[in-house]
């Protein structure tokens, strides 16, 4: 079961906007933006000779778009890694901080920033959800002894398509002079983020576990090779929604999902994860500042 | 809650010890149930221990052999193999083994419960299923076989991401360039040599002057030499002052002498601790030893006669082979069946190269007899060793002071864990040194080493006779 709201089933998405969106998807005109404050911080850090390398590493770990770009470029022929770079930690270890900052600055300069007039709050919310999902995915992986780095990346990037859908549909609506209601925007995001996320994953050759997490996190039993990552992402997404949007679930609704049993999490394990709420929120708040 | 279901035997845990206990009970016609907290059968041995680590070792060996013969075969081996490729085979083997065990339990009519067990009394067990449903079970005989987990030493921040234990090390998705391994036991030595064979710069850090203190010193010396020749480093007699993740890409280990070691990852392998905390043993009246293990007699029976403890939760040796035997013997004893003659259990260490031991080693022999005769066969002097490229090895026979009777066998080198069984059978039947010379071995085989080592002892005997006669 998807943790997204099922609004898309009932909400009327304006047909011209949907048609235009589909055309853009088909033409592969998808570009990931970097959040302005991150771009600025990366450039500031990189031009400061006394910059703390740990902070650059932390920045890379915090931002969806930057993370995805880093992985794409780190795996490109220009850098020719001997083996596929599978995680951000792996990228930091293999490339070194100076190369990473070079990549990060390039990305920051090249990418347009996400600025959707009137939708800053939604962008912020999406980013917070991505961070919370990443943080929770890590904790689930620690608990079950699955790969923590991989889990984090899947959690962070599983909804990488959402800001792109938001930016694209609002731009289309503006062009077509159609006013989109918030619930229609929500429905577009819910309906199309996974599809766009898969396109991004394919186009950028993101690690296969990330691609599968994006495609299958809400139907993890169908994941062909990385079922554990898809399961952890499903639960991380669910827990992130639970802590960021408390009204979305009550405790028993939250627990009413097969993913807990499929990950072999007993009721007290779930308690342990829920007990990390403040830690996750604190982390998200820190990174959002 | 529904009333309790009764079984003749309930086994808690489905690792090697639990599984063999359950099968022994079922073969004797008893109604048996197994309670396992994980969805799959096999315990840590199958999912986080023996099977995956030995499969990874096999992959590392194959890679090493391919690299060795790359010039002969004119093939190019990429310098860095993705771990995913190595681990895929691990997953396949684990799945196959788990399925085989599942079928074995099913075939024997054993009931399997997926849940956590805890004692309500000495005869009543409450089982909590994954979805929170509780069920009561009673049994005439209860076998505790809950295994062990990696010990987490105080002050070392194991995060399962950069600082790993022997469970989380198997979740790695890429090979680190460097790895620091803390510990000098079996797990530490095995993983250190496996990762070194995979091309990782490994530093093994331990307090002792050599790892694997319980093994023959000569064997261990050869292992360390081989490990260091392969690019590994052994930091002997070193205590760890501090371990921290630098927040970027390195684990920084500070030793007591001030030396700093930086590595991409760290493996902490400083022993294991029994999984007994969740069982609520106080409800049975049983208490744990100082080491947190369960005290049992030679039949694996606890202070409460119908409760048995088997496997890793008893502490060393922590071998799957001895755990299986304990499981079998415990149930035989509970049912009044003959347990069979107790025999020495061989020790097999799956380092690269392998090591194995049975009976007395040289030091133990000297401690008991003051003097022993030791025969040696080096693998590089055995035809099969040269043919197969297994030149780094040694087979030692330890004989009594007269050089007539076999006291023990120690082997280092590929195939050691298989070869040791020849010595095991010889020891069990009070084999003489001469019997190794009189028996014809296939040629060329590594087993021929027994004959060569026996001839070495024969030579020493003749010299002694000659000097006595003179």
Question: Short description, anyone?
Answer:
With 289 residues, chain A is mostly helical. Helices cover 69% and strands 0% of the residues of chain A.
Care to describe what's here?
- The complex is a heterodimer of chains A (289) and B (470).
- Chain A has 289 residues and is mainly α.
- In chain A, 69% of the residues lie in helices and 0% in strands.
- Chain A has 17 helices and no strands.
- In chain A, helix 12 packs across helix 13.
- The longest helix of chain A has 25 residues.
- Chain B has 470 residues and is an alpha/beta fold.
- Helix content of chain B is 34%, strand content 23%.
- Chain B contains 13 helices and 21 strands.
- In chain B, a hairpin with a 4-residue loop joins strand 3 and strand 4.
- Chains A and B meet through helix 4, helix 6, helix 8 and helix 9 of A and loops of B.
Radius of gyration of chain A, CA atoms, in whole angstroms: 18 Å
Uncertain parts of chain A = 1-8
User: Which whole number gives the mean pLDDT of chain B?
Assistant: 93
Greatest interface (CB-CB under 8 A), with counts per chain: A-B, 32 and 35 residues
Helix content of chain B: 25-40%
Distance between the termini of chain B: 87 Å
Total count of strands of chain B: 21
Query: How would you write the strand order of the largest sheet of chain B?
Result: 1-2-3-4-5
Oligomer: heterodimer
**Using only CA atoms, what is the Rg of chain B?**
24 Å
Give the amount of beta strand of chain B, in percent: 15-25%
The structural class of chain A is mainly alpha
Number of helices of chain A: 17
Give a quick account of the main beta sheet of chain B: strands, pairing sense, barrel closure: 5 strands, mixed, barrel
Shape of chain A: globular
Keywords:
heterodimer, A: 289 residues, mainly alpha, globular, B: 470 residues, alpha/beta, 5-stranded mixed beta barrel, 5-stranded parallel beta sheet
Topology of this structure?
The complex is a heterodimer of chains A (289) and B (470).
Chain A: H1 7-10, H2 15-26, H3 36-46, H4 53-62, H5 64-74, H6 88-95, H7 97-110, H8 120-144, H9 148-157, H10 162-175, H11 182-203, H12 208-216, H13 227-244, H14 251-255, H15 258-262, H16 267-274, H17 277-288
Helix pairs in contact in A: 2-10, 3-4, 3-7, 4-5, 4-7, 5-7, 6-7, 8-9, 8-13, 8-17, 9-12, 9-13, 10-11, 11-12, 12-13
Chain B: E1 5-12, H1 16-27, E2 32-36, H2 43-47, H3 50-68, H4 70-73, H5 83-107, E3 111-119, E4 124-129, E5 134-144, E6 148-150, E7 163-165, E8 178-182, H6 186-197, E9 201-205, H7 217-229, E10 233-235, E11 240-245, E12 251-255, E13 260-263, E14 265-268, E15 272-274, E16 307-309, H8 320-334, E17 347-349, E18 355-359, H9 362-369, E19 373-378, H10 383-388, E20 394-399, E21 406-412, H11 416-428, H12 433-438, H13 448-469
Parallel strand pairs in B: 1-2, 1-5, 2-3, 5-16, 7-14, 8-9, 8-14, 9-10
Antiparallel strand pairs in B: 3-4, 4-5, 6-15, 11-12, 12-13, 17-18, 18-21, 19-20, 20-21
């Amino acid at each position: 079961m998807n943790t997204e709201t099922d609004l898309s089933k009932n909400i009327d998405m304006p047909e011209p906007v949907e048609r235009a969106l589909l055309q853009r998807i088909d033409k592969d005109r998808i570009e990931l933006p970097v959040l302005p404050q991150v771009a600025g911080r990366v450039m500031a850090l990189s031009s400061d000779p006394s910059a703390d390398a740990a902070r650059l590493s932390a920045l890379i770990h915090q931002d969806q778009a930057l993370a995805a770009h880093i992985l794409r470029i780190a795996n490109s022929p220009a850098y020719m890694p001997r083996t596929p770079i599978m995680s951000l930690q792996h990228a930091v270890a293999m490339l070194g901080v100076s190369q990473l900052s070079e990549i990060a600055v390039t990305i920051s300069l090249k990418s347009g920033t996400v600025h959707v007039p009137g939708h800053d709050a939604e962008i912020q919310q999406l980013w917070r959800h991505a961070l919370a999902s990443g943080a929770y995915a890590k904790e689930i992986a620690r608990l079950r002894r699955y790969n923590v780095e991989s889990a984090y990346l899947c959690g962070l990037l599983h909804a990488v398509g959402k800001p792109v859908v938001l930016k694209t549909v609002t731009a289309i609506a503006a062009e077509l002079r159609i006013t989109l209601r918030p619930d229609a925007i929500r429905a577009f995001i819910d309906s199309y983020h996974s599809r766009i996320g898969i396109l991004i994953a394919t186009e950028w050759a993101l690690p296969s576990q990330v691609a599968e997490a994006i495609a299958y996190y809400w139907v993890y039993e169908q994941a062909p090779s990385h079922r554990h990552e898809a399961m952890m992402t499903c639960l991380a997404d669910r827990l992130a929604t639970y802590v960021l949007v408390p009204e979305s679930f009550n405790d028993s609704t939250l627990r009413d999902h097969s993913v807990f049993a499929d990950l072999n999490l007993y009721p007290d394990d779930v308690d342990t994860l829920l007990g990390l709420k403040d830690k996750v929120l604190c982390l998200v708040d820190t990174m959002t500042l | 809650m529904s009333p309790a279901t009764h079984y003749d035997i309930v086994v808690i845990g489905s690792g090697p010890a639990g599984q063999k206990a359950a099968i022994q009970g079922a073969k004797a016609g008893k109604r048996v149930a197994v309670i396992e907290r994980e969805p799959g059968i096999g315990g840590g041995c199958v999912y986080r221990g023996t099977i995956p680590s030995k499969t990874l070792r096999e992959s590392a060996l194959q890679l090493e052999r391919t690299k060795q013969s790359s010039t002969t075969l004119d093939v190019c081996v990429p310098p860095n193999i993705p771990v995913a490729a190595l681990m895929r085979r691990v997953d396949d083997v684990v799945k196959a083994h788990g399925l085989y065990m599942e079928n074995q339990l099913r075939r024997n009519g054993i009931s399997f419960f997926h849940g956590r067990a805890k004692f309500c009394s000495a005869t009543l067990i409450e089982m909590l299923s994954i979805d929170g449903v509780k069920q009561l079970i009673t049994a005439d005989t209860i076998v505790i076989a809950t295994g062990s987990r990696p010990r987490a030493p105080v002050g070392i921040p194991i995060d399962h991401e950069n600082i790993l234990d022997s469970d989380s090390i198997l979740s790695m998705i890429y090979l680190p360039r460097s790895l620091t391994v803390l510990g000098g036991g079996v797990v530490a030595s095995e993983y250190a040599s496996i990762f070194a064979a995979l091309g990782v710069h490994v530093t093994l850090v331990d307090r002792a002057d050599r790892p694997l203190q319980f093994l023959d010193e000569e064997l261990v010396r050869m292992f360390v030499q081989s490990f260091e020749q392969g690019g590994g480093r052994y930091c002997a007699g070193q205590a760890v002052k501090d371990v921290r993740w630098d927040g970027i890409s390195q684990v920084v280990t500070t030793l007591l002498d001030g030396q700093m070691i930086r590595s991409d990852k760290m493996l902490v392998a400083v022993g294991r601790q029994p999984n007994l905390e969740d069982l609520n043993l106080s409800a049975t009246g049983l208490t744990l030893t100082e080491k947190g293990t369960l005290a049992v007699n030679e039949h694996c029976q606890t202070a409460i006669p119908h409760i048995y403890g088997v496997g890793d939760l008893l502490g060393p040796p922590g071998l799957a082979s001895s755990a299986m035997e304990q499981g079998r013997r415990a149930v035989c004893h509970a049912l009044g069946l003959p347990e069979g003659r107790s025999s020495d259990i061989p020790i097999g260490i799956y380092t690269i190269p392998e090591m194995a031991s049975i009976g007395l080693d040289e030091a133990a022999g000297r401690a008991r007899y003051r003097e022993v005769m030791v025969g040696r066969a080096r693998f590089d002097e055995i035809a099969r060793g040269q043919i197969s490229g297994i030149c780094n090895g040694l087979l030692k026979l330890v004989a009594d002071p007269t050089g007539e009777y076999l006291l023990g066998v120690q082997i280092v080198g590929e195939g050691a864990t298989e070869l040791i069984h020849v010595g095991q059978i010889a020891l069990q039947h009070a084999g003489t040194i001469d019997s190794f010379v009189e028996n014809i071995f296939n040629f060329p085989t590594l087993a021929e080493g027994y004959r060569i080592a026996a001839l070495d002892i024969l030579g020493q005997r003749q010299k002694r006779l000659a000097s006595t006669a003179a």
